[in-house]
């Protein structure tokens, strides 16, 4: 039986996710419906992607009995209310990153998923790329010895994108880009909470962070450092340094197609999209979609690879970094 997807929002990432889904076998994944705030947007999206049902409200999608899981691609200030809408309607959910604006909101979402006994995962797609699977295998087998340092960066010039710069749209580099560096670091350090976080950054006049540099210290004198920026194009690679060697993820570290282990590079190709994409390598979202299918088939309520505690840890670290850099969203004051 195919996993029946509902797509919530007709925006840029929803387009790419739908294209990614269609690179998977049709007997495994079907897009059944799309919902947008405006019916015309949903209808246009449905036409473009040959989806049979289009709804002019998210509530109608929540009431559709033929949906196994909803993909939420709305901007992050609306993740909380949208996640709650679907979890309370007993729908399984894959929600775009960041799961919410802060740890308090993440806790609310996780509690609602548990209460309603539904599956929920933050769409940290990088974790499911073949390169990430290989990194976890290499680390488990201690191929580079004991890891002592992780370095990562994600920077792109996004000053022209309203949702990157405006506070009420959830702007800020840490929540949008830094999260990829943080998830990489916490994946390598196996979900461990850092002993110490030191962050410094530059903010825009809108009150959101533009460029942030963070150092993290973990137990047993293990370190990490990352830079994120919505103003600058950075090299965007990531490196794991162990006592016996290194693993490098060449750009783009959030959607990688190659891995360099002790100097030896291996390529991992992605399928071609059937329509032009808004973001780089988006057909790689197929791996997180397949993870959702496998979890649902097993009756799991969270993914062991991107668990609820992983999402909470990310949100807590993002809160602490924003506190040190001085970025406060209205959601922090509620
Ligand atoms: N995984 C990735 O690689 C990746 C890449 C980009 C973005 N993202 C994440 O995906 C989410 C959406 O990003 P995007 O670039 O796709 O954004 P977008 O196209 O600007 O907006 C996505 C949708 O959010 C809703 N929306 C936009 N502005 C709104 C407002 N002022 N009030 C209420 N709803 C609003 C709209 O839904 P309707 O269509 O229903 O009107 C819109 O289509 C973000 O949380 C982002 O972090 C992930």
TrEMBL record:
Top EC class, one word: oxidoreductase
Domain of life: Eukaryota
Domain spans labelled Gfo/Idh/MocA-like oxidoreductase N-terminal: 4-121
Residue spans crossing the bilayer: none
Pfam families membership: GFO_IDH_MocA (PF01408), GFO_IDH_MocA_C3 (PF22725)
GO molecular function: D-xylose 1-dehydrogenase (NADP+) activity; nucleotide binding; trans-1,2-dihydrobenzene-1,2-diol dehydrogenase activity
EC code: 1.1.1.179, 1.3.1.20
SUPFAM superfamilies, alphabetized: Glyceraldehyde-3-phosphate dehydrogenase-like, C-terminal domain (SSF55347), NAD(P)-binding Rossmann-fold domains (SSF51735)
Subunit structure as annotated in this protein's UniProt entry: Homodimer.
Sequence similarity: Belongs to the Gfo/Idh/MocA family.
Protein name in UniProt: Trans-1,2-dihydrobenzene-1,2-diol dehydrogenase
